């Protein structure tokens, strides 16, 4: 069982984020990740970048259900209108 | 046959392939259920599916094949498309419908 804050800390450490929220019940998590590193990357490449940060936790099975939205800062401000 | 070669044969030999937990009729995970629902909503009712719960070697091997750690995984025409988040986003944007055009009942 993981705390959303643990995932948030891991992500902040491994990926420069302009905005980051992680919510979850300990088993299923939802994250909104805004990073300039996503510029020029497609959806698969963005999630692969995030998954690389969390890889060890997927491998051990502690983390198996993380939904994520991956946005560039520009897409993020457009979405907020 | 080694498992990577087997996966390669499955994804290149079938136009639409979904690696999932359970079967399209009885998905055993919410994310896999959502993936099936989205395919159906795109008009794809017949597709090649692999139940990774019954195939532990594929379950392990598929994570390396596309460098993707989670199930479900969708492949169209041999290309890795994404997991359930990406399928949802692409469906909402109308991109998945385009990608799957002409592939209804493709199994």
From TrEMBL, chain A:
It comes from the Bacteria. It comes from Candidatus Proximibacter danicus. Belongs to the BolA/IbaG family. This is BolA family transcriptional regulator. SUPFAM superfamilies: BolA-like. InterPro entries: BolA (IPR002634), BolA-like_sf (IPR036065), BolA/IbaG_stress_morph_reg (IPR050961).
TrEMBL record, chain B:
InterPro entries: Glutaredoxin, GRX_PICOT-like, Monothiol_GRX, Monothiol_GRX-rel, Thioredoxin-like_sf. Signal peptide: none annotated. GO terms for molecular function: 2 iron, 2 sulfur cluster binding; disulfide oxidoreductase activity; metal ion binding. SUPFAM superfamilies: Thioredoxin-like (SSF52833). Keywords: 2Fe-2S, Iron, Iron-sulfur, Metal-binding, Redox-active center. The keyword Cell membrane does not apply. Residues 16-81 form the Glutaredoxin domain. [2Fe-2S] cluster binds at residue 29. The keyword Metal-binding applies. It comes from the Bacteria. Belongs to the glutaredoxin family. Monothiol subfamily. PANTHER family: GLUTAREDOXIN FAMILY MEMBER (PTHR10293), MONOTHIOL GLUTAREDOXIN-S14, CHLOROPLASTIC (PTHR10293:SF72). This is Glutaredoxin. It comes from Candidatus Proximibacter danicus. The gene is grxD.
